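Hi support team,

I've been running sequence recovery on a batch of backbones for a student project. Most finish fine, but this one hangs at about 90% for roughly twenty minutes before it completes. I'm not sure whether the input is malformed or the queue is just slow. I've pasted the structure tokens below so you can try to reproduce it. Let me know if you need the job ID as well.

Thanks,
M.K.
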């Protein structure tokens, strides 16, 4: 996120950070909404999995995923 809105920046421990990063799972996936997204395949993170490793990286917004996709 944008450096301009941050204060108190400090370098973190690289060895510890690498261990954390290695726990994050990169996933190839498609979208349930084939009408809007087609057969598009992307590489990314699954929010529920990322939240287990780094909870501060994930926020929740209600009412976004229609019930037909759950």
């Amino acid at each position: 996120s944008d450096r301009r809105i941050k204060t108190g920046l400090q370098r973190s421990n690289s060895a510890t950070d690498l261990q954390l990063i290695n726990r994050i799972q990169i996933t190839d996936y498609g979208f349930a909404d084939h009408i809007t997204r087609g057969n598009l395949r992307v590489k990314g993170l699954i929010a529920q999995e990322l939240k287990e490793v780094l909870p501060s990286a994930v926020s929740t917004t209600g009412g976004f995923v229609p019930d037909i996709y759950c």
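--
Follow-up from support: It reproduced on our side and the slowdown came from queue contention, not your input. Strands lie at 27-30, 41-44. No action needed from you.
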